[in-house]
Backbone:
C-alpha cells in the first residue's frame, strides 16, 4: 500500500514517531502534524487517504480538527484519546469519526485497524500479494509458495521474508531488522536474526541465495 498516505496528528513527538514507524513498516507513506492547525495546512496541500487524530492538542484540538475535515472531506478518521468515557466516543462518532482508540494502545492493533478500515473504505489491497524471483507471498492468507509449491514458515520467518520483499535491494542492518520485525519491545540478542535467516534460507531452497549477507552489518534481499 505504498500509494496510501496517512496523516498522523499528535502533539507528542514520541507518539507520532512510534505510530509512524509501525505504519511505514507496513508500506504506508506517513506525514506528521503536531496540532490541528498544522494538520489542516497539510491536509489541504496533500492527498491524504486516512487521518489518525489525537483529541487533546494545543491551538486546535482533535474535535475541532475533525469538524474542519468533515466540512470538505469524507476521508476516514481514527481518533486517539487518553479519555475513554462513553460520551467522548459518542461525540466522536457524531462528528464522523470512523474508529475510536483509547490510549495506551498497542501499535500492532492500531496498524491492524488501519488496514481493516482502508480495506473497508477503498477495497482490497493489491499489495497483499508480493512476488520476487519465483517466491510468492500472500499476506492475507499468510502463505508462501516457491516455484508454485507451498512452504511452511513460522510466524517470525514469514514476517522476516515479508520485510525482505518489501525492501528489495536495500541493505538492512540487524538493528533495523530487529526494530521492524521484532518490534521495539524486543531487547534480546541480535544474533537471533542470524538464526532465523539461516532457517529461512533453508526453507527457501535455492531461492535462499537471494538473501545476501553484508558482513559486519546485516542482510540484503536481491534477486539475481
Residues:
Amino acid at each position: 500500500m505504498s500509494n496510501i498516505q496517512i496523516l498522523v496528528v499528535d502533539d507528542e513527538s514520541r507518539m507520532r514517531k512510534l505510530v509512524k514507524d509501525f505504519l511505514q513498516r507496513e508500506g504506508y507513506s506517513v506525514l506528521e502534524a503536531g496540532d490541528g492547525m498544522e494538520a489542516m495546512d497539510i491536509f489541504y496541500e496533500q492527498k491524504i487517504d486516512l487521518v489518525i487524530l489525537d483529541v487533546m492538542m494545543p491551538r486546535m484540538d482533535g474535535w475541532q480538527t475533525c469538524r474542519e475535515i468533515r466540512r470538505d472531506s469524507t476521508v476516514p478518521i481514527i481518533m486517539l484519546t487518553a479519555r475513554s468515557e462513553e460520551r467522548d466516543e459518542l461525540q466522536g462518532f457524531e462528528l464522523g469519526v470512523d474508529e475510536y482508540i483509547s490510549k495506551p494502545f498497542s501499535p500492532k492493533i492500531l496498524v491492524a485497524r488501519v488496514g481493516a478500515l482502508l480495506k473497508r473504505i477503498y477495497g482490497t489491497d493489491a499489495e497483499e500479494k508480493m512476488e520476487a524471483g519465483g517466491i510468492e507471498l500472500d499476506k492475507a492468507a499468510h502463505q508462501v509458495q516457491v516455484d508454485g509449491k507451498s512452504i511452511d514458515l513460522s510466524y517470525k520467518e514469514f514476517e522476516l521474508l515479508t520485510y525482505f520483499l518489501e525492501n528489495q535491494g536495500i541493505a538492512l542492518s540487524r538493528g533495523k531488522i530487529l526494530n521492524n520485525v521484532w518490534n521495539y519491545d524486543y531487547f534480546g540478542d541480535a544474533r537471533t536474526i542470524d538464526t532465523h535467516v539461516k532457517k529461512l534460507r533453508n526453507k527457501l531452497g535455492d531461492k535462499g541465495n537471494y538473501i545476501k549477507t553484508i558482513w559486519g552489518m546485516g542482510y540484503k534481499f536481491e534477486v539475481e
Observations:
- The helical segments are 13-25, 36-45, 62-72, 86-94, 107-122, 155-166, 174-182, 191-204.
- The longest strand covers residues 5-9.
- The chain has a mean pLDDT of 85.
- Residues 2 and 65 are 26 Å apart (CA to CA).
